[in-house]
Write a structure and sequence with these properties.
Layout: E1 4-8, H1 12-21, E2 26-30, H2 34-43, E3 45-49, E4 52-56, E5 59-61, E6 72-77, H3 84-90, E7 96-101, H4 109-115, E8 120-126, E9 129-132, E10 137-142, E11 145-149, H5 153-161, E12 166-170, H6 174-187, H7 190-194, H8 200-203, H9 205-224, H10 233-241, H11 252-260, H12 270-279, H13 285-304
Parallel strand pairs: 1-2, 1-6, 2-5, 3-10, 6-7, 7-8, 11-12
Antiparallel strand pairs: 3-4, 8-11, 9-10
Helix pairs in contact: 6-9, 6-10, 9-13, 12-13
């Protein structure tokens, strides 16, 4: 019998996960927007990876009532971190065996565990780069890895491994969470601050130096907290600058959120990182500058209308 995975959220990540996992497990996607859910149920969506594209047809639901009596092996919350609390409340009556939380940023996982007393809650991150160009079109620009930690990580990781995705499992998720936090805290605000794509890393040496210093500050915070990073955020950024990811014309999720008028994740990423730095007495002038500049630009762009 196929394992059953329910994905909460039909955004870029949710659709990419559905397309990848759907080849090996039974996938259902919950999307609260009934219009989007019905459209995806009726037409599916175009999934692009590299030069290949295919139509993906998946089971969609816009109401969780149908899932309350179903056996769910893994419940994946593919929402943005600022939408996580409301998504958890909506799903609180489901009874999954395992829960996977791949959100960027810092949040209180214990509140989520209290909402699902019988489920094993697993925290982790992905280094996937997904880009949505409409409710029925998504591109997987980079598969990346999945990093998981804690109880249940081996089971959830095993499902991802079936699809060929590289998975790394750790005793604790903190090294992965912090590595991605540092990466995202620096990279996600850049397109908003500069008004350019990530090719700015090659074209502007001042921006590159800013990025390097900010990463060093983030590393110092994690070191002070006793967190050993699961991967080097700067090496991943160097791949975006000069490596196999350099050709991606991508502005990141924060720029996309500003474009469509959604709240951004910056406070959960760069904001959270600078707050933790102050708590442990680490000075982060460059990260503080990135946070201040991005908030100012977002306020201006939101007022004037964002044109990437």
């Amino acid at each position: 019998m196929l394992q059953k995975v329910v994905i909460v959220g039909a955004g870029a990540l949710g659709k990419c996960l559905a397309a990848i996992l759907g080849k090996k497990v039974a996938v259902t996607v919950y999307e609260r927007d009934s219009f989007v859910s019905e459209k995806l149920q009726r037409n599916g969506f175009v999934f692009r990876e590299g030069k290949r594209s295919r139509i993906v047809r998946i089971k969609m639901v816009s109401s969780l009532d149908k899932l309350r009596s179903e056996k769910i092996d893994v419940l994946i919350f593919a929402t943005k971190v600022m939408d996580l609390s409301s998504a958890v409340r909506a799903c609180a009556k489901l009874d999954p065996r395992f829960i996977f939380l791949p959100q960027n940023g810092l949040f209180n996982i214990h509140k989520i565990k209290r909402s699902f007393k019988r489920a094993v809650v697993c925290r982790g991150v992905t280094t996937m780069a997904c880009q949505e160009s409409g409710p029925c079109n998504v591109a997987l620009l980079y598969r990346g890895n999945v990093y998981l930690g804690g109880v249940g990580a081996k089971f959830v990781g095993g499902i991802f491994r079936k699809t060929g995705i590289k998975v790394k499992v750790f005793k604790s998720p903190q090294g992965a969470v912090w590595a991605k936090l540092i990466f995202s805290s620096v990279m996600n605000p850049l397109p908003v601050i500069t008004g350019q794509g990530y090719d700015v890393l090659r074209k502007d040496l001042k921006i590159w130096e800013l990025v390097r210093k900010a990463i060093c500050e983030g590393r110092e915070v994690s070191k002070t907290l006793g967190v050993r990073l699961a991967f080097d955020p700067l090496k991943l950024i160097q791949r975006v600058r000069h490596g196999d990811l350099a050709g991606i014309a991508y502005r990141g999720s924060v720029a996309r959120d500003v474009l469509v008028g959604r709240p951004t994740e910056i406070d959960f990423m760069t904001g959270a990182l600078t707050r933790r730095a102050r708590e442990v007495g680490v000075k982060t002038p460059v990260l503080d500058h990135i946070l201040s500049e991005s908030n100012m630009k977002i306020a201006l762009l939101t007022e004037e209308g964002y044109h990437p």
